[in-house]
Amino acid sequence: MKLEMGYFHVQDIVFGEKTFFENGILTINKEEALNIVLQDENITYADLIIAKEGDPIRITPVKDAVEPRCKVSGGVMFPGVTNKLVPVGQGRTHVLKGSCVLAVGKHWGGFQDGLIDMSGPGAKQTMFSQLNNICLVADTNEDFEKNQQQKKNKALRWAALRLAEYVGNCVKDLEPEELDVYEHLPLVQRSKEVRELPSVVYVLQLQSQMLENGYNALVYGWDTNHMLPTLMNPNELLDGAIVSGSFMPSSSKISTYQHANNATIKRLMEEHGKTINFLGAIVSNLNVQLEEKQRSAFFVRQIATSLGAQGAIVAEEGYGNPDSDFILVVDELEDAGIKVVGITNECTGRDGKSQPLVDLSEKANAIVSTGNVSQFIKLPPMEIVIGELESLARDGNSGGWAESVLPDGSIEMENNGVFCADSSTGNHYKTVVEY
């Protein structure tokens, strides 16, 4: 399976009479773009606001992030979600690199929604402060969700997907500035030299703890609560086969943007044929009941051993209850003779002295920490707020509380509520070091 990714590097975003890309500048016809958003009758208000790196801007409540892209050949964007169900991971995809669509609530937030600061100390907490962001600020008539701690946010999240594709289509017929090629051959077609390298598999544990449809991560549009661990070609993940769910404390969430830019997968692909034989990605789920957790762990072990894996990277989306799924998979793989490196955040309390994971094992002896969700942070006021700052304290944000927002607009909160601050794909620069 061969995938070409053509990159167009966005240096600035402005509004204009038509949507086009030229000389590093992305120009967007705002009225036309909003018409794409308002195709959903559930959206009652929508606006677009540009937020760039270094701007004195605070954005909240953020619900998802999507990279503007278009398929030139070999599939569609977001298959099984906003477009028909067809395979992806092959052909050519064009990408407006350095830009991002953020789905932002005009008023209502919740447990799963986060905050992004484009400058100041808060900007160091999340990678999205470094991008040129197209903030889709919208409200909906989904009144049943407004007072719920957990929200599906479907209308706004799906609108962000459509908007990202609309913007991405402006480079469909252009020649990219840079081209990356990802080719993942079947195991039997690999050369003897590649097959003799250490064989490594990547295990991605997606959040899927909600029994009702609409909250969990989607694979080709399929709710991951209803799936068993599945072997996927890594090209499929890089080409948009996974859409982020709404259920997950914000700092631990893997956004749709990060799924399609999974830095761990990209590095494994880069090392393939040089230092490792990269076998593929096992996409797994995170469950609630112990029997479900054990079943998934058994399937991960069976797939990995059938492939002949000697090493594995296991990445967990979230913390708390999912830690038991994470540790079960590590134990199963280690018992099968497969060496494991885990990637996860931790919940060690504000003083850093609490147990980092709910479940532990002596076999989990190589873990990369992506941060402490309980880290206490103080953020100064910002000149501009996109969305509604009060939602952080009012609507049950996972890192906020009733007194989080101070009268001068400054914030006291936990890292838990910073958008994708410590998700496990490697798309960040923050970690915890043990001395």
From TrEMBL:
GO terms for molecular function: oxidoreductase activity, acting on X-H and Y-H to form an X-Y bond, with a disulfide as acceptor. It comes from the Bacteria. InterPro entries: Gly_reductase_pB_sua/b. This is Glycine reductase. It comes from Cytobacillus oceanisediminis. The lineage of its organism: Bacteria, Bacillati, Bacillota, Bacilli, Bacillales.
